[in-house]
Amino acid sequence: MGIINNSKTDPNKILPMRYMWARQHYKDGVSNNWTPEEISMQKDIEQWKDPAALTESERRLILWNLGFFSTAESLTANNIVLAVYNHVTNPEARQYLLRQAYEEAVHTDTFIYCCDSLGLNPDEIYTMYTTIPSIHEKDDFVVELTSSIFEPHFTTEGDENIRRFVRDLVGFYVIMEGVFFYAGFAMMLALKRQNKMIGVGEQFEYIMRDESLHLAFGCDLINTVIEETPSVWTTKFQSEIRDLISRSVELERKYAKDACPSGLLGINAEQFCDYVNYIADRRLERIGLKKLYNTENPFPWMSQSTDLNKEKNFFETRVTEYQVAGALEWD
Ligand code: FE
Ligand code: MN
């Protein structure tokens, strides 16, 4: 009995548990519970309405990131519910997937809340995946990469199908949630550090905490599938996965440059690209592959700004404390 290919419909008993990491990620997710309405948007609304408070390029960058994330979150939610849950048959792993699905619903709710409070045009935000090429390319890349496991007769029987399934897991957990989210996180948190759109920034921080858990679960899941069927992890397949991740890095660097061509106060577009390289190396290592870039982290504050039990910052609207320390990694 492994993590996949058990009975799909038996009401499997969850005890005793085999994969304690899945249980731990579930508990960490629950300890991080939050909802967007807990965060005040008052200052953001004032800044958004004040023509002098934000530059044109800052406004554009905020809209782009809201536009990208609003569709990415629902693509991820669909993948969990319609594909991953169907094939990951172990009960404690499924328990985590239910928690993750809820968190994706919270993230989707966050973008509704942002659109509502800032008075944004939902048609503009929710169609950016078709109207903005570098958003479209990212979404397309993941959707194409993972389309075969949505076929109605797809099973995870046999090495070739397990490879397809691992490709899907890499596509959503490592590439979408682990690479494609991070230039946007860095931009929104950089704005927040300049006291711009701190409500939206704080929401992105909470999302980033959740996503780092999703990524951790995804990597544990990928590593477990490989451990249980080592014959799928051929040299050829490993280089295919490295190649996919390096193509995703190119798309993310392109997105970073398009969304933020002239940089943000004190940060140039190239630094966002370096950050993408840096986090991609960490993802590669996490699934047992060699680093590709060896780039230094240009934004050490990305992990500091989300440290657990952090002190209340004067400009922040609430103290963000978490019950579980040490279990989460941020960048
Ligand atoms: Fe999410
Ligand atoms: Mn997620």
List the keywords:
mainly alpha; globular; binds fe (iii) ion
Summarize the structure.
With 331 residues, the protein is mainly α.
Structure, described:
By secondary structure, the chain is an all-alpha fold. It has one domain (41-305): Ribonucleotide Reductase, subunit A (Orthogonal Bundle), CATH 1.10.620. Helix content is 65%, strand content 0%. It has 13 helices and no strands. It has helices spanning 20-31, 42-49, 56-87, 91-118, 122-126, 128-131, 133-146, 159-180, 182-193, 198-228, 235-259, 269-286, 301-304. Helix 1 (20-31) runs antiparallel to helix 10 (198-228), helix 3 (56-87) packs antiparallel against helix 4 (91-118) and helix 8 (159-180) packs parallel to helix 11 (235-259). The longest helix has 32 residues, at 56-87. The protein is globular and about 60 Å long. The two termini are 33 Å apart. The relative contact order is 0.14. Residues 307-328 have low confidence and may be disordered. The structure holds fe (iii) ion and manganese (II) ion. Manganese (II) ion is lined by residues 76, 104, 177, 211, 214. The site of fe (iii) ion has 7 residues, from helix 3, helix 4 and helix 10.
Task: List strands and helices in order, with pairings.
Elements: H1 20-31, H2 42-49, H3 56-87, H4 91-118, H5 122-126, H6 128-131, H7 133-146, H8 159-180, H9 182-193, H10 198-228, H11 235-259, H12 269-286, H13 301-304
Helix pairs in contact: 1-4, 1-10, 3-4, 3-8, 3-9, 4-10, 7-8, 7-11, 8-10, 8-11, 9-10, 9-12, 11-12
The structure holds fe (iii) ion and manganese (II) ion.
